[in-house]
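Pipeline run #58 for the internal structure catalog. This entry was flagged by the ingest filter as a single-chain record with no existing model, so it goes straight to prediction. Upstream metadata was stripped on purpose; only the residue string is passed forward. Reviewer on rotation: M.T. Logging verbosity set to normal.
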Amino acid sequence: MNTITMLQTASILLLLTALGGLTMASVRFARKVNPPSWLAMAHGFLAASGLTLLTYAGLTDRVHGAAMTGLVLLAAAAIGGVTMNLGYHLAGKVLPAWLLSLHIALAVAGTLLVTWSAWAG
């Protein structure tokens, strides 16, 4: 698999992840409860798949600087996601809106950069 194909595949995985994230954010903000665990786990597994493929592409070949910036932003978003899952969701605490909003902002920016690099660059 060449680098562009890996970046495109990673961007598709990340866009699918975003659909689950949008659903979960809607549940959290509209109903003031945490989303179901199965949806959070699916979201995390998809995100990890895209992030792993993106990391592999970045380590094995030259990729556009925007894709690497996207990787850094997505890694930061992943830290926030793990924090929300382990520190709040599993403990039965409602996810804090500020952390969820930061997670969303980092993930959206990272996904847009990776998608732009994969398809336009």
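catalog note: The helical segments are 3-31, 37-60, 65-89, 97-119.
catalog note: The mean pLDDT is 96.
status: ready for reviewer M.T.
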